[in-house]
Amino acid sequence: MLSIDRSRELTDVKVMWNVLCYGDSNTWGCKPITQFGVYERYDPDVRWPGVLQSTLGSEYKVIEEGLNGRTTVFDDPIMGSDRNGKSYLAPCLETHMPLDLVIIMLGTNDLKPRFPGTTFDIACGAGALLAMAMNPAGNWIGALPKTLLVAPPQIGELTALAGILEGAQERSLKLAGDMKRVAEMLDSPFLDAGLHIQSSQADGVHLEAEDHLVLGQAIAAKVQELLN
């Protein structure tokens, strides 16, 4: 009779965890802006999703889905409806399925005065995205993904972006607390990026390279906790 060493067989099987990072310009890797309308991007290994990938290692596949100006659920009357995070999330989830974890870090752009609502409304917008990720539509492959809501760091003193984010600095002080409340309501894990990093002093919104490193490592620790 043929004898099969099951323990060796299981040891040799490689497990791949698929992690989607869904965010705005700080997930895209936009460098701090010193001249309005001039955008530069960090290299892939510098951006926090790239740091997340290198920290987690080859057993994980980190998918970077960042877009400048992306909101939670609002159509942008200036930048266009394609910045609405809710509109793109469903096809994005189906494009990358199966997924084990969906990380959502949005909300900064919703603080622009062109959008209505309170910081709790913004948090509820992020909650709507969490709900979509928890129960994705379509012909889903694999188990339903876990989620992680990341509150962006507070907005600092605005320079080149002051015109489009007027009043956002003070409002951003409440955003993380409201997002934590919504995450708890939906039983989703939560991470406050502002406890680990701060927005660049150069423009008050985007991250310096060292903050991408710290954030990527902090999220990596949370991902390992959730998936292991």
Automatic annotation (TrEMBL):
It comes from the Bacteria. Pfam families: Lipase_GDSL_2 (PF13472). Residues 21-209 form the SGNH hydrolase-type esterase domain. This is SGNH/GDSL hydrolase family protein. The lineage of its organism: Bacteria, Pseudomonadati, Pseudomonadota, Alphaproteobacteria, Sneathiellales. Signal peptide: none annotated. Keywords: Hydrolase. One of its GO terms (molecular function) is hydrolase activity. InterPro entries: SGNH_hydro, SGNH_hydro_sf.
